[in-house]
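Q: For a teaching session next week I want to show students how multiple molecules come together into a single three-dimensional assembly. I've collected the sequence lines for a complex. Could you give me the predicted structure tokens for the whole thing so I can convert them for display?
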Amino acid sequence: MKAIELHGLEKRFDDFVAVQALDLTVEKGEFLTLLGPSGCGKTTLLKLISGFFEPTKGTISLNGQDITKAPPESRDTAMCFQSYALFPHLDVRENLEFGLKENRVSREERKNRLDDIVHHLDLGSQLEKLPNELSGGQQQRVALGRALVMRPSVILFDEPLSNLDAKLRDSVRLEIRRIQQDYGLTAIYVTHDQSEALALSDRVLVMNKGSMEQLATPEDLYSRPATSFVADFIGNANIMDAEVIEQKDDTHWFLETPIGKLLVASDKAPVASEIRTCWRPERIELFSPAELAEPKDNLIKATVRDRSFQGGFTDLFFEAEGMSFRLQVQDASIHPGDEITFRIAPEGIILLEAKA
Amino acid sequence: MKAKDWIKTILLLTPGIGLIVLLIGTVVYIAIAQSFGLYNLGGEDQLTIAYWTKMLGRKLYMRSVNYSLYIGFWSALLSVALAYPIAIWLRKPFSGSIAIGAILKAPLLVHGLVAAFLFVNVIAYHGIVNQFMQWIGFWDAPRTMQNDKGAIGILVLQVWKNMPFALLILTGSVQSISDDVLDAARDLGAHSFSRFRKVIAPLTISAMQAALVIIFIGAVADFSFQTIAGPTNRQSLAQLMVFFKGNGRWHDAAVVGSTLMICALFGSALLAIVVRFIVKGGRFK
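A: Of course. Below is the structure for the complete assembly, covering every listed component.
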């Protein structure tokens, strides 16, 4: 069932188009993340859904009802703010009960919901404290609880972890996902952190300059980015221009690239004769001289220019035709100046958009 | 803090605060002492409560106390009540908001006495309002609005003069509330008045108290507005004090002056406490 439907949604601020011609459907119980760089329109889109902004064009439906013109206080959504937005003059209990009282929920029901959320978020010992007496993580949990206690159809997160330190971010991230699944909530989550998006979401909507760049599962987004923008934004990618020089069969093509002639396996045909293509730095195989006796396709020889040890892996950098490429290998013994040979599997090369 | 630190702090504060305390303290002391028969300018000093006893038994005095408190409380409450929606409206800048803010604050630059004369021109028997109402055919004959018995004219003048001051204090305070906090209240279902009552008012309570107290103290001791536009059937405490002083009755004037200080002190404290109590939903935390 559809929880949210957006049709032809557009938001303009004078001449600036923050969101343009956006169509999107979010299923009930789905965790959708809006991902993109600063200024791409993701928070504007969230504010359009929550009602803080009115769209210039298009419609928004919640559970099949048109809510385009409804004010935020009348929408069955709840928002978790980046700054937590806790009421500083109210203690934790009053913060949690604020929305329930505003919506005239009965005293008994209020108590039940409060007990449930306090138990779920382990806030029992914090109820009498004011927000400024809580740590960042605790404040985040109260903000989450205040939204969850409303039992909204859709919960909206506006970069809720950006003020937490890295370690706490990981644990709160898992907690958010667990609670969303426990309550079967539909969640829309805004972030510019791609690892957060990949770890949390059922689907990720990548936005760029107010438009949808790609909407896909985290796995598809990483393995099959639709554009060089997505490939570059999600994880590390070696993006290069290529010329399609020959079609081998229905699913294989030969490309001329800055690192040599490469065979590509893809279930979709190249969109033009001159295109952009990419490959992930970790999706390669290193070959020792002994293994090179057997001929293979897509073998590339390179001289290591730079090396960056990362603990679990090592980044190696080489240059070809003035471009820098990155490899991620487990072998920490390779150093600048070493000659290496590696292979990119035809399935590891991704065809992107036509060359501009 | 150690004794040495206390001494150092007091010595550093003495040239500033000490001078203020000395000057105010001297005036307060003389007024109180004079109300008990000391500092007699026309004869022998005699410590007595006779002036207080006599004054407390006079209807004129009690009416002045009630009237001054009435003007003080209503001026403070109405000025703040009017300033709040404007402060909230001007919270976020929009085109022309700076100009509107500046115009609204203009009465701060007009002296009270001048304002009262301007106001009299508006409400006088042959003033602007009467002429206008007759011209549009609403009224057949001019009406008496100046020196009205209910002191509505005085309240209008007080609010006109003091609202900009309340606005000045409240605007900064309202602007310091983050957008997210107000959006969160809205997102949780709070409508406009609820947002004001449960979020804006409690978060700006200190500014509200400051505005109420300062306006109350000024209005309770009003002299210039009362003299020009006030009702003729009663006098404000300041007016009564000047009346006694003008007749050479310094001890009676000192009693009224001391009463004025007591009213200002306890009235403003009461106002501040009651407002905090109401806004905080029946608690002082």
